[in-house]
Amino acid sequence: MYCQRFDLNVHITRHARERMAERCINECELHDLLETGATRQKDDARLWIAKKMPGRADNLVCAAVILEDNLVVKTVMHHFQWED
Question: Do you know which Pfam families this protein is assigned to (predicted)?
């Protein structure tokens, strides 16, 4: 998978793939999330990307990612809420 938004190839960790399966989030939905979701930076390399997904009743879907040589998806969450 490639993410145009960050101009990086995407690497999905084993942990993230397991969470995607548990939460019924497929790669197409993940790709849409990475390309169009709202972002919040934790630091220069780490951020969260979240989006309300059509047809899902579990609040925001969120990916915790790291910007390295690839865009590394560390985990995928649902029932996510931004902290103020």
Answer: DUF4258
**Which domains occur in the chain, in start order?**
2-80 (3.30.2310)
Do residues 34 and 49 touch, judged by C-beta distance below 8 A?
A: yes
**67 exposure class (CB count in 10 Å sphere: 0-12, 13-18, 19+):** middle
State the pairing for strand pair 2-3/60-67. Answer: unpaired
Tens of pLDDT, residue by residue over 21-63, are 999 999 999 999 999 999 999 999 999 999 999 888 888 999 9
Strand partners, 80: 60
Say if residues 61 and 47 touch (Cβ distance below 8 Å). no
64's tokens: 């915790």
